[in-house]
Predict the 3D structure of the following.
Amino acid sequence: MKLLEITMVCCSAVMSGTAGAREVSGVSVPATATVAHKELTLNGAGVRTEKAFFKVYVVALYLEQPTSDARSAIASDQEKHLVLSMLRAVSREQFIEALETDIERNSSGRMPILRARLDLLQKALPALEKGDVLTVTYLPGSGTVLRGQGQKMTIPGKDFADALLSAWLGPSPISGDLKRQLLGG
């Protein structure tokens, strides 16, 4: 009987270590991410589809303080981390055009203020191939750090980070289903 109890305790420990980690369209999505020496918790993850058929990327949202409230996720001045894992190739122009359209839909009054920083993003972002990973990290006081294909750039301003995150979580997001998934729904 003692051996059975020990086995059950060991199995519970192993299972709790992987709790929260999941697979989304073949992409492993960890339960946590370490950013700037802080452990962020997976808030939600989902797949971006185009025309309801084509899976474009898996996106995972990590927050210091998980929330199911989109406005709170966007407005909070906490570290935020998005991981986009490409499921198909997308040109730089296609990606930027789609992103800018969604930012404009959610931040239209602020586009003149954001324009120069969006132009920086457009110049720095490479074409994205299947299997590439792009990370977008907001660090309070530093700005938005983008990493992908060996490139890194920081774009200043919390307003830019808010506008970027609003593409996925704003009132008119890329996808309502994806927004619900990122908010843990």
The mean pLDDT is 87. The longest strand covers residues 38-50. Residues 2-18 form the longest helix (17 residues). The helical segments are 2-18, 70-75, 92-107, 111-124, 158-169, 176-182.
